[in-house]
């Protein structure tokens, strides 16, 4: 398995594995102040705590296939206005 050169973001990896889990409720991630290495400090979720290899696999998948970011409200409005303008122009062609 190829390493990415950066530590696994454990919170994002856990949420990839268990999307319904709630950070700081179902699990708590802490960082060592000297090394900044993160660990799962508390696990209260009703499913098995993921292993380091499961976290790495989930993180690698997130890096290879990032989630699609939803369009901002501004982008959505702009797209709808452009579609409306195109529909208006097309409708006027039939008049």
Automatic annotation (TrEMBL):
<dbReference type="InterPro" id="IPR019094">
    <property type="entry name" value="Phage_SP-beta_YorD"/>
</dbReference>
<dbReference type="Pfam" id="PF09636">
    <property type="entry name" value="XkdW"/>
</dbReference>
<dbReference type="InterPro" id="IPR035950">
    <property type="entry name" value="XkdW-like_sf"/>
</dbReference>
<protein>
    <recommendedName>
        <fullName>Bacteriophage SP-beta YorD domain-containing protein</fullName>
    </recommendedName>
</protein>
<feature type="domain" description="Bacteriophage SP-beta YorD">
    <location>
        <begin position="12"/>
        <end position="66"/>
    </location>
</feature>
């Amino acid at each position: 398995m190829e390493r990415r050169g950066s530590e696994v973001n454990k919170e994002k990896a856990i949420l990839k594995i268990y999307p319904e889990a709630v950070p700081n409720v179902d699990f708590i991630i802490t960082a060592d102040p000297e090394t900044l290495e993160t660990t799962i400090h508390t696990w209260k979720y009703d499913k098995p705590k993921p292993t380091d290899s499961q976290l790495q696999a989930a993180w690698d998948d997130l890096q290879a296939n990032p989630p699609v970011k939803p369009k901002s409200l501004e982008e959505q409005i702009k797209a709808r206005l452009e579609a409306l303008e195109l529909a208006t122009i097309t409708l006027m062609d039939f008049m």
